[in-house]
Structures are given as C-alpha cells and as structure tokens.
Amino acid sequence: MLTRLLSGDTPRSSLLTALLLIILISLAFAPFLFPGTKSVETAARICIFIVLVASYDLLLGYTGIVSFAHTMFFGIGAYGTALALSTTGPGYGALIWGMAAGAGVAALFALAIGLFSLRVKAIFFAMVTLAVASAFAVLVSQLSWLTGGEDGLNYKIPRELTPAFKLIDEKIFDVRINGKLLAYYLVFFVSVMLFLVMLRIVNSPFGRTLKAVRDNAFRAEAIGYRVVWYRTTATVLSAVMAALAGSLLAIWLRYTGPATTLSLEIMIDILLMVVIGGMGTLYGAVLGATLFILAQTYLQDLMGAASEATSAVPLVSMLVAPERWLLWLGILFILSVYFFPTGIVGRLRAGRG
Amino acid sequence: MNGTAIKPRIERIPLKEQFFQKLPVLLVPLLAVVGLVAIGDPASWLTLTVAGLAMGMMVFIMASGLTVVFGLMDVINFGHGAFVAVGAFVGFTVLAWLAGWTASPSVMLNLAAVLIAILAAMVVTGLLGIAFERVIVMPVYGEHLKQILVTMGGLIVAQQMIYVVWGPDELHLSRPEAFQGALVIGEAAIEKYRLVAVGVGLALFLAMRHVLKYTKVGLLVRAGVENGEMVEALGYRIRRLFLIVFMTGSALAGLGGVMWGLYQETITAHMGSDIMVPVFIVVIIGGLGSVEGCFIGAMLVGLLANYTAFLAPKVALVSTIALMVVILMWRPQGLYPVVKAK
C-alpha cells in the first residue's frame, strides 16, 4: 500500500527515510509541535515550495531542461487565484475556477514556449526563458489596473479559512482550532497530493522516457520516441504543477505580488533548492526546500549572532552579516555542483552501498 | 616549376545568395525608416534614434564578450552580468577619487578621469574573468547544464561580494562636466553622452572586426570557433586562447558596466542581472558566437526599445521579446548563425 502510494519509488536509504519521515511528521503536525505564527508560516512555505521545487525538478532533473521561466508559471497560478478572488469576492467557486484558470493559462504558455524553443539547444532555451520570464515580470508590475502593479493584490479568502473563523472554542494542546489551521491543512494536504501525483508521473513509463531523453536525446529519437513531444509535455506538466503551487501560496498569504511570486530571486532560490537537494529525484526537492527555507528563516538569526561576535574584525563581520547569507549559499551551491552533483539524496543513496 | 601549379579556386557565391546572407544588415536602416514614418516628427525621431543607437552600442559592448566566449569556448557565462556590475562599481570608486578632475570644466581632465576609470574597471574585471575561468568554469567545459548552474552560482557570490565591499545601497554615479547636457541640432536635443557612447561602441566594433579578421589571434579564434581540436592539433595551445578570450570578454563587460553606469547615473549590485536580459536577447538575435550579428541585434534592440517607448510605453516592455520571437522564426539560429563543426 505504502509502496503503491509512493509509486514504487521508495527512498532506498535508511537515513534518507528517516529524514523524510521527520520532515513529513513535522509538517503534518507543525501547528501543534511548533506553536507560533512564524513557525507555521515557515511550515506552510516549506509545503508550497516542496511542490514548486519538485515541479521544477521534473524539468531540470528528469528531463534535463534548464528553464528560467518557472516563477512565471508560479506567478500565473498565484495571480489567477488572486484575480478570481478579488473580482468575484471570497467564495469556493472563485477559488476553484481561479486555480483552474491559472493552471490552464500556465499550460498554454508552457505549450507555446515549449513548441517554440525546445528544438534548440539547452543554452538557447535557458536564455529565451530568462528573457520571457523577465518580460512577464515587468509586464505584471506595469499593468497596475489588473495586477495592482508593484503593490500586488490584497483580497479576501473564504471565511472558513481565516483566523476569524472558530471551529471549536477550546484550545487543543494550546492551539486555537480556527480557520488558519484549516488553511494550513488545506495547503499541507494539497501539497502532499500534488507531490504524490508527481511521484506517479516520474515513475511511469512516461517518466522513464523523460530520463532517456535527458541522458541521450539522440538515441531516444532514434529508438522512435518523439523527443520534442516528450519535452513539451514535461514542460506543460511542470508548469501546471507550479501554477497550482502558486495558487496555494495565494490562498495562504491572502496577498499576491511580484516580489512573492515572480522575482528572479525566487527563481534562483528554486534552482539552489533543486541542486542542493539532488537533481533527478523528487525526494531531493523535499530536502532541498526544507533545508533552504529553514536556513532562510533561521540561519539569518544565527549569522546575526556570529556577526556581533566578530564585530571587532572588520571584513569578517561584513561577511557573516545576516543579509549576506546568500553569499554562503552561493558558495555552497557551486561546491555542490562540483562535488555532489547528485545532491544530498544522491549522496545518501550512494552511501548505502 | 612548370607553371602548372594548381591555384586554389575560391568559389564565388552567387550574387543572390550573397544578398540573402547580407540581408540582416538592411534591417537596421529599415527599422529606422519605419520609426520615422511611425513617429512623424523628425526632431523627436532624431533624438530617439541617437538614444536607441547609444543604448544599442552599450548593450553591444556587454554582449560582444559573451558571444565570442560562447562561440569559441561553447561556454555561456550567466555570471557575465556580475562583471558588468563590478566594472560599474570600480569605475565609481575611481571617479570618486578623481572627483576634482571630473568636476573641472576642462574636457581633457574629464576625459582622462573617465579613461582611467574605464581602464581600472577593465583591469579588475579582466583579472576577475581569469579567476572565474580558472576556478569556476574550467571543471565544467562541455557540460552546458553544469555551466549554467555554476556560473549562476558565481553570479550570486559576486553580487553578494559587491554588497560586502560597497554596501547595500545604490550609488549615484555622476557624469563628468563635459558629458553633461545636450547638443541642440535644429529642434532635436541630443545628449552629449549618447554621442560618446555611440562613438565608443562603433570604435569597439571596428576594432573587434579588425582583430578577428586580420590578425593572427583573430584567425586562431575564428578557427577555434570552427574546430577547436584542429587548432590544438596544429600546435596552438587552445586553453591559453580560451583564457585570453575569457579575460577580454570580461574586460569588455567591465567597460560596458562603466558606460552603462554613467548612462543610468545610478548603480546597484543587481544592475548586472537587470541588463543581462537585453544582452541575452541581443546575443540570441545575432546568433550565438557572431560579433556582426551581435552588433546588428544590439542596434535593432536599442532602436526598437526607444521607438516603442515613445509610441506605446506599455508595448515597449515586450517589444524586444517580440523582436526575438520574429527573428527566431525567420532564422532559428539567429541572424548570422555560426557554423560549428562540433
């Protein structure tokens, strides 16, 4: 049953299994295990980013396509939901058709990009998607009558998902059972579901063909697989997944703006998460996203302490200033591409012997 | 010798094909004419054209290094933008030291200050380029995916280092006295600095063409682009050539950074990644690896961006992307595809 749920793709390493279980349990009971707004925010972010990063891994790790347009699809999903909710008011109908519309538009965009440029070399595709994505980001920030421009959109979500809604009056384990908790579990369960769907995709014959295309497109073509078709389909699937992740973010934050969905920084974050976790395995996305977001949230405090401790040494204190945490991640990133090209997951699996 | 030595026969390309190959050259004047018709007012057209050419030239300066590096080494450097930013910041520091020179009305002193700033920027970015090639790019030759990832990582680190060295705020970079203000020709106002940018870009283009076409290094570079293994087999150390080209490319990015910084008058650590989008578009339009294509692409992008910004500001945001799409539909490998034996 469990193997079936995981589509036969078990972690294949006891340490990895343990880590994944810890992450799963922590996320499943986050509101009870780590009470407090900040930790629940972080947990929800981790859930959403696991989906987003896994969907990117579908492209990068499984199909070998480097795209910089992934935040564009994330943003389309978020804006789809945001626009539906802000134009027709808070209702489940709006929520659902907003999500569907976002995913649909993302699929169409992905299809256009895919058909247009997947015939070209990896480098070409990377540059084209970078250009398209940044044009999209600029466009969104300029069309303020529709998207709220740089300020983004604030909107209401169905009342049952807001803190104002109380399910029961008593607290359970000191936690208020309110709409926010429901919203968290909505995010959590949808994320788990999407993740399992992606696991199903990559372990199907289709997923195996993707790997064949990645490893040797020429041979795959020669055997008779239509490489362009496979690449385009992978692009569309990953775009739809990213858009759904975007919708989750829109529901959770009750705000959608260019900075939270479309910026190049987020794209780079996704890239870092995939590579650090391990390309070509969805479990890598789980580890990568979790570690990265924990670092983003808590490492800065740690670095702040280090910075204060070294404040007497001028250059060092600048280097460990909390705002410079990305510097260290960048270095880690380069090193991991060289020394751990398979990421944490690849390492753990190889370590098993 | 009996006079029957075989002469090499160079096949003449039929005139029609020659014309077809040269066709992209005509795009720039064509676009300018279309712009004139659409704008209607010659004075604003002239201003916009000069502005477009100036922008195009600066983008060309930054893109040329990138495209040659790609052509020769098959490496696309996503960290190129970092060199642009570093160049601008070094230029800023030097110009700040020479504040007395830049503030004086003497044109010579102004020019000297700018030249020193440019030189310093080019030296620093050139050295940085060497380090970048040795440390970051060298282990991943021939692997596009890793190149993209690693150079992206290099970009992050370089940007963060700019924050460490120069602080997180955006800095104001003022032009020297002589380059401020505008010339008025008829009714058209043309900023002096834009003319300078056009001059520098044109000079660089001609120099690059000359080096690539008529010098031995250029010959080797061109031969290396076609077939690196063969050049190596002939006894040239292609690795060293790589290094020289990478250094030059990075130094050009530094030059572009100073020029762009003086044009924008504010510099930030992420200015490099901002400018990379037009740079990539230009490189793609031109055909990866082609200097001529890059030049024409830069002119097209510069002119189109300025014309549409005047005519329809909202359209301007996507106009260059549209241009890229149209050109790729016409010529999928860019305007001047570089023939690769690889």
UniProtKB/TrEMBL annotation, chain A:
Q: What single Pfam family name could you report for this chain, choosing any that match?
A: BPD_transp_2
* CDD domains reported in the protein's UniProt record: TM_PBP1_LivM_like
Could you tell me what this protein is called?
Branched-chain amino acid ABC transporter permease
Where in or outside the cell? Answer: Cell membrane
Keywords in alphabetical order: Cell membrane, Membrane, Transmembrane, Transmembrane helix
Taxonomically, the superkingdom here is Bacteria
Q: Is Transferase tagged as a keyword?
A: no
For this protein, the parts annotated as crossing the membrane are: 15-34, 46-74, 94-116, 123-145, 182-202, 234-255, 270-295, 327-348
Q: Tell me the membrane topology, using the record's own terms.
A: Multi-pass membrane protein
Chief subcellular site?
Answer: membrane
* Coiled-coil parts of chain: none
Q: Does the keyword Transmembrane apply?
A: yes
From TrEMBL, chain B:
Q: Name one Pfam family in it.
A: BPD_transp_2
Q: Where are the transmembrane segments?
A: 20-39, 45-70, 82-101, 107-136, 148-166, 193-212, 241-263, 275-304, 311-330
Alphabetized InterPro entries for the sequence: ABC_transp_permease, BCAA_transport_permease
Q: How does it sit in the membrane?
A: Multi-pass membrane protein
Lineage: superkingdom: Bacteria
What keywords would UniProt list here? Amino-acid transport, Cell membrane, Membrane, Transmembrane, Transmembrane helix, Transport
Localization, UniProt: Cell membrane
As for family, the record states: Belongs to the binding-protein-dependent transport system permease family. LivHM subfamily.
What name has this protein been given in UniProt?
Branched-chain amino acid ABC transporter permease
